[in-house]
Amino acid sequence: SHWGCQALNVRPANSRCVYYVDLAEGCRVFRSNPGWDGPTPPSRIVGYSAHLSRCQAPVPHIFPARDGALSKQHRDFTLSVEGLLPGQHLSSTQPEVLHAVGQGLACLHRAATSFAECPSQWQPVRGYVDGMFSRSLARPLAEGERAAVTLLCQHVQADYSSILDQYVLWILCRGDVHAGNTLVTAEGEVGFTDFNSAEYAPALWEVVMTRFQWLVGQSQGRLLEVSEAADLVRGYHRERPLEESEVLAFPAVWSAYYTDRLTFLHNKWEAQS
Questions:
Q1: Whole-angstrom distance, CA of residue 100 vs CA of residue 175
Q2: How far apart are CA 43 and CA 77, in angstroms?
Q3: Could you give the residue ranges of the DSSP H alpha helices within 64-112?
């Protein structure tokens, strides 16, 4: 009733708390978000998505309620309505597809820099690395992160301390980047959905994330090959060239993210065993 719509048909989507709603004027997505995927409040995520859409980023349009509100609270849920993106979910690792994904992600990041509720800042990458250490519960893995950073520093001929002092762009990232949350049209245009995991972090975090989980949930679930990840990064760099400080900080973001994922898998394994 908040949106003044009468549903003709409701179908559950392949996602938690998401429904396709057929209306007289077309199909829309009805999302009931309890905010369990990350630290960002659901109402802020809805506002973030609407801002990205207004900035012409490749994301769904948010339909406001009759009183202009972008979302409504119902019990413990934040309700919102968004449009459907054209295209099909991705499973391909073809160079042109990954290149387009990188370009789309960079466009999203550029738009995110002007989101007033969560302003972008240039901050030392040390804060990101320390945050990963603080939630890493397995000490051997934390020590492994230091070893990984040391090796990467040697590769780029830099020292660990100077890398942690490098400034990187922090924004509200969409989070959870993978093929199942990305659509591509026959013309090769890319769009991103499902922003429940949005989190304030270095933009580089999402660039690194794509290699680890781009194929998560796919039958060929694996890491992207180096050449495949390079295709995506080239597309990203074409739209948002990295600053020199971000390039220097990349090893720290890379190793901290992978250690965090290893810690998650390690703790999950211990809990199951």
A1: 18
A2: 10
A3: 95-112
Q: What is the pTM of this model?
A: 0.86
What angle separates helix 203-213 from helix 244-272, to the nearest 10 degrees? Answer: 50
Cβ(166)–Cβ(125) below 8 Å: yes
Q: How far is Cα 34 from Cα 16, in angstroms, rounded to an integer?
A: 10
Residue 53 and residue 61: Cα distance in Å, rounded?
6
Identify whether the C-beta of residue 30 lies closer than 8 Å to the C-beta of residue 77: no
Residues 6+ apart with CB under 8 A from 179: 89, 90, 91, 92, 214, 215, 216, 217, 218
- pLDDT tens for 144-196 read 666 666 666 666 556 777 888 999 999 999 988 888 888 888 888 899 988 88
Distance of alpha carbon 145 from alpha carbon 134, whole angstroms? 12
